[in-house]
User: What shape does this take?
Amino acid sequence: MKIGLVGLGRMGAAMSQRLRQQGFDVAGWDQNANANQMSATTGLRIAAHARAIAAESDIIISIITEDHGVRHIFTGSQGFLSGDVAGKLFIEMSTLQPMTGRELAPLVAAKGARLIESPVLGTIPQVRDGRLVSLVGGAAEDLERARPVLEKMTRRIVHMGPHGCGYAMKLAVNLGLGSYIQALSESLALGFKQGLSLEQMLDVLQEAPYASGWLKSKVDVIKGAKPDMTLDIRTLRKDIMSVVATGALSGVPMPQSSGTLAALSAAVANGYGAGDLGELPKFLRESMLQNFE
Amino acid sequence: MKIGLVGLGRMGAAMSQRLRQQGFDVAGWDQNANANQMSATTGLRIAAHARAIAAESDIIISIITEDHGVRHIFTGSQGFLSGDVAGKLFIEMSTLQPMTGRELAPLVAAKGARLIESPVLGTIPQVRDGRLVSLVGGAAEDLERARPVLEKMTRRIVHMGPHGCGYAMKLAVNLGLGSYIQALSESLALGFKQGLSLEQMLDVLQEAPYASGWLKSKVDVIKGAKPDMTLDIRTLRKDIMSVVATGALSGVPMPQSSGTLAALSAAVANGYGAGDLGELPKFLRESMLQNFE
Amino acid sequence: MKIGLVGLGRMGAAMSQRLRQQGFDVAGWDQNANANQMSATTGLRIAAHARAIAAESDIIISIITEDHGVRHIFTGSQGFLSGDVAGKLFIEMSTLQPMTGRELAPLVAAKGARLIESPVLGTIPQVRDGRLVSLVGGAAEDLERARPVLEKMTRRIVHMGPHGCGYAMKLAVNLGLGSYIQALSESLALGFKQGLSLEQMLDVLQEAPYASGWLKSKVDVIKGAKPDMTLDIRTLRKDIMSVVATGALSGVPMPQSSGTLAALSAAVANGYGAGDLGELPKFLRESMLQNFE
Amino acid sequence: MKIGLVGLGRMGAAMSQRLRQQGFDVAGWDQNANANQMSATTGLRIAAHARAIAAESDIIISIITEDHGVRHIFTGSQGFLSGDVAGKLFIEMSTLQPMTGRELAPLVAAKGARLIESPVLGTIPQVRDGRLVSLVGGAAEDLERARPVLEKMTRRIVHMGPHGCGYAMKLAVNLGLGSYIQALSESLALGFKQGLSLEQMLDVLQEAPYASGWLKSKVDVIKGAKPDMTLDIRTLRKDIMSVVATGALSGVPMPQSSGTLAALSAAVANGYGAGDLGELPKFLRESMLQNFE
Assistant: This one.
């Protein structure tokens, strides 16, 4: 089976390697020439554009940053749907707004092809070990067709419901992630201004009932160690903006997520966008406080 | 050694039992007559008022809900400091604003007595098993004097720094707790409006990197089971309001905690104040959403 | 010229009267039977459904509450576009999200008809006096065709730009309205808790640099007088939710509007939805405060 | 009558000139040497420190930026209360937290002197013309003693109540100011991203029911003109932080003001602190938006 993969960023590049290791014939493409070159050095065959990827593949995976970009990959002049895609299966793995999934599905169907969404829980290490969790939205039979590919990358595949439900679940998870890191930022800033040290606080916070393995894994980055980049602040901000938009369109007020979004936006405005989300507490502590003399 | 205990709510009552089981001679008092009666039926000796408690005890513990109440227990006309308290040690265990601790300490010292603060992590089960975590603010020598008592209730005692630092750390922890439960509420409401079921969502959220034992322990309450009440929404709201006040007084903007506070305030206004915090998601889902058609 | 009008709520009913007074032949319809009856008693001819309105009219005005409803009026089974509407002009006057306008325009065009949006500034008195301000989005030539009708209801017509721009401007205005009333609510609650009286505060607030005629007009309602209902809290909430959604979809963080939305949502949850927006301060003061004893 | 004036910033310097023009004998001091020099060039007699000001004056005015600074002016080693101040009257005119006023009053009384607070509405032009509005907190008889001085600077003097009430009213007014400018920022950013021009939007916003003279006066600055500096963003941020702190300490949740505070804090973090508040919309529009390509 031939697999095409559009989006060769950190996640996409890792997936292309995993899938080849698992025996698939994979071709890739990214709109960024550097990303293409990087993947080419690992032996990945690079196509000319998204349409070319679709033309030569049975199953086409896309994993890029945001909704406008994904729409363009599908509907742009050299996008997937600009060629003959009858009979093909698209597995869209980005973190998008549910409405984007519900908008793309009929466009794909109109070309005689099928689409499922499958955003995932997990980052690079989980890709490498095939231990992602897949959150699928779309028809059950399309998921069955995708399963042999998804299984090689995941430890669990959950069918959430029709199109949009997979993205909704992914946003619900990332909402909590943004909340967790911003709560930590506010906690540490509060304690800092009250005379506590970062070490003391991180020690005690690991005693909190809601302490998690993730907090433990971020402690060194929060203390200032160089991060093994997983999710950057700009991307998390985009996800939380999608959360707030989806919430508002559905009739859900989001007072807390809106607060998180304001903080993330301020961090990006201050040049922290490319930083790991474990660096967010530093931004609050160093830039947002009011100092009296 | 004789121990006095003011505040016979859920936590105070459990402490009075634990301390007696550990061999201390304990007398108690609460401003609420019912609470006194309830504790009397467990065999606790009840005194006439806070001053009487202080008069007959070497070490006096207080654990009540909020700052105004604690100030009154110390400085009211029948309060601790209305009698001769020279040489006594006060262990204040409520969850207060740091400034309240820094305000009370010199008043106590002026009467020849000593004060440490020791808010705790943990609830009723941890009191019963002596497995609380104590977050101490005050002088090291006063902590040493308190240690034989605190040790019977805790698995760990952390000296955070001078007066105020214990409260600051406790607020920093509860900030995260409020954030966690409100984030969960927003997640579940978002997914609910997008067609996901509570069961599906709680299942997947336990796969999130930031999942915790606490989330697991709350799953049944979130699904609708009767809670084994630990922290009620009204009290958590009071804590988050203290977080926001302490933050603002210290120069820390708290966009996320302010969002959480708005949500908790709305829940209390709707009559959810006495509910367990695991019932917060239900409030958002059932009352705050906007319904069209 | 025959005019059809769908939506016979407060604003629609007033418009139907104004237009008849100005000499137009007007027929109306509302999905709510009571609204139809009420307007019938004023002499308005009532049609069977939206499609029937479109069938018999040259120009069709719609003014209802929210986006889902408007979509249904256009695309539902008895909606405008279910009949032959070639050559007709639709003037959509509701307060909607810009994306809704951009979504409807091509659907209308595909049926050989034209659409402009024209949300308005002003309420019932301005309708009666023909002193609304019209914020038009759509093509200039379609505005010219609508002008003879719009002119009878407005003192000013502003062409904001293509489809969506009129709605965007209206949302931008209502954002400020929501902000103003919630700011006033927070001001008054703050002063109230600090010992100031409502009378004192409203007096001084009219000295503020940002005081406006609108504040002056609301002073009696804020003090408790029965409102001459203009905009209810539920509808303002819907507008602010549209603001937040449109903002997030466009990449604009809205920390303040999100705070306003949280407050309005709490008010609706507490049963204040049908109240005039001048009643919002009462809700905050009476229901959202934390009381210490 | 001899008047002392501590705080020779923009407002204090203008007041020192106004009072001398009105025939008072005035001496001044500021902790900033440049401010002293600047005022000396206008002919103001400069004293050595705050205590020296109090020593030579009957009535002592203070007008500086924030609470810690004012506390220091009164209780510092060279502060007002470090000398003999029996019989003197202090008029504190800064914008402070009510609790600061209630904290200082008994300290002043203990030294045999009197204190009223009189924060004001208005900026430099109103000082020059004696057209401020004075919001007085403190005892009525002390206000009578201050009146001959206050009258020369004000068009209206309102006795709000006991100590703290004047500050509370001033914070309530500035809450609205912060809200107004941030609402405008969010409005303009929303419209901007939807394709509207600044000129169009500012034109229409002046048609809004809540439009004010203040908005009109800020239009040119918002469009990019160099401001005639009145209130800078950093100071407004401090005021809104005082609003949030006072609210939380009083039991008032402030979801909207907290959103405003987040935005102002982000602006200060980005280097906009010294800007006029009319420059806030530019910050949101240029730095906080998320751009998709």
Q: What stands out?
A: Residues 122 and 236 of chain C are 14 Å apart (CA to CA). Chain C touches chain A at residues 241-242, 244-245, 248-249, 251, 253-255, 258-259, 261-262, 265 (CB under 8 Å). The first helix of chain C runs from residue 10 to 21. The longest strand of chain C covers residues 154-161.
